[in-house]
Specification:
Elements lengths: L1 H7 L8 H29 L5 H6 L19 H22 L5 H29 L3 H14 L11 H8 L6 H18 L22 H9 L1 H5 L6
Length: about 230
């Protein structure tokens, strides 16, 4: 949901019309996937809440997204690098989630993976194109990688909830997919002639509700209508 909101900010501002439309469609894919999960979460919870309650009526501390997805769009290269780093994880995550013992989650993963495969191909191709492009595009991509790398460790680091979901057969063993994610990232960065940062220090806390200053601004915009006019419908 948060990455979909971030990408939607490019609508009408893309470098060319084709890429403007492409990112807008990817944003819609993410929001659609979030809706499927929120609808099922509301059904399982059984307290009468809806997908809109999860999206628009939670406070920042109640969001458990990784810090990477809330980072600013920046320039085109910054957005593409953020997208590639997330897509590399997301593809293997959903590919494994297909095996969930929860049939509804498995079905959502199966449906979502068709879109996620395209996301990874799109961001990978752009990463190579810009990284191995002009001197300026290479520099911007390297700067983006250097800035965002510290947010990638959280992706494949399991917390208590991840471990509980894995043990129950519902979720994904993040330690299992880590080698695949790292291999994919390394392969694309090599093709893009980009140098992976040597620092192993990573930011964390997003999955526990500890966010960067950016999330509050995202939610203020995303939730305004629902909070200003509770229960409003189109």
């Amino acid at each position: 949901m948060i990455l979909g909101q971030r990408l939607s900010e490019w609508c009408g501002h893309g470098p060319i019309l084709e890429q403007d439309i492409a990112l807008t469609n990817i944003a819609l894919d993410f929001i659609g996937q979030a809706r499927n999960l929120y609808q099922y979460a509301a059904e399982v919870e059984g307290k009468g809440r809806t997908e809109d309650d999860f999206a628009f009526l939670r406070d920042p501390l109640d969001y458990k997204n990784v810090l990477l997805v809330e980072q600013p769009n920046g320039n085109w290269g910054q957005t593409i690098m953020r997208q590639f780093l997330y897509d590399s994880f997301n593809f293997y995550f959903y590919n494994e989630l297909k095996s969930s013992t929860d049939t509804q989650i498995s079905a959502i993963a199966e449906k979502s993976l068709k879109e996620i495969k395209y996301h990874l191909r799109y961001s990978s191709e752009w990463t190579v194109r810009l990284g191995d492009g002009t001197e300026e595009s290479h520099a911007k991509m390297q700067n983006a990688l250097d800035d965002l790398w510290m947010y990638t460790g959280e992706l494949c680091t399991p917390d208590a909830l991840d471990k509980e979901a894995t043990e129950a057969g519902i979720g994904v063993d993040l330690n299992k997919i880590r080698p695949y994610v790292e291999e994919k990232v390394d392969a694309i960065l090599t093709r893009a002639t980009l140098q992976k940062p040597e620092s192993n220090w990573m930011q964390k806390g997003g999955k526990q509700g500890q966010h960067s200053e950016h999330l509050g601004f995202i939610l203020a915009e995303m939730q305004f209508m629902q909070r200003a006019y509770p229960g409003a419908e189109w």
